[in-house]
Amino acid sequence: MKAWPPPWQVLIFDDPVNLMSFVTMVIRRIFGYSEQKATELMLQVHNKGRAIVWTGDREKAELFVQQLQSYQLLAAMEPVE
């Protein structure tokens, strides 16, 4: 029996360039999150240096990382352990 592939998580990392309001706007635009959820994720990035902003299929994670990077955000993906 074949096991399901592990889910992947999309991460955003803190950077010295982008404004917090811009990061919040990008998160809302790409993921469709509420203002409150996007602000919470942005504050995690700002205060902890990174935040997991989405978890799911690898192909969709790749798309999200590409979209985040198109806004010049530091983004990556990794398998969930």
Brief descriptors of the model:
81 residues, alpha+beta, Ribosomal Protein L30, Chain: A, 3 helices, 3 strands, 48% helix
Instruction: Using the 3D structure, state the CATH architecture.
Output: 2-Layer Sandwich
Order of helices and strands: EHHEHE
Helix content: 40-55%
Q: Write the CATH homologous superfamily.
A: Ribosomal protein L7/L12, C-terminal domain/Adaptor protein ClpS
Mean pLDDT: 95
What does the model show?
The protein is an alpha+beta fold and 81 residues long. The chain has a single domain (13-79), classed as Ribosomal Protein L30, Chain: A, CATH 3.30.1390.10. It contains 3 helices and 3 strands; from the N terminus they run βααβαβ. The chain has helices at residues 20-31, 35-48, 58-70, and strands spanning 8-13, 50-56, 74-79. The chain has a 3-stranded antiparallel beta sheet. Helix 1 packs across helix 2 (35-48). The chain is elongated, with a radius of gyration of 13 Å. It starts with 7 loop residues before the first strand and ends with a strand.
Summarize the helices and strands and which ones pair or pack.
Blueprint: E1 8-13, H1 20-31, H2 35-48, E2 50-56, H3 58-70, E3 74-79
Antiparallel strand pairs: 1-2, 1-3
Brief overview, please?
This protein is α+β, with helices and mostly antiparallel strands and 81 residues long. It has helices at 20-31, 35-48, 58-70; strands spanning 8-13, 50-56, 74-79. A three-stranded antiparallel beta sheet has the order 2-1-3.
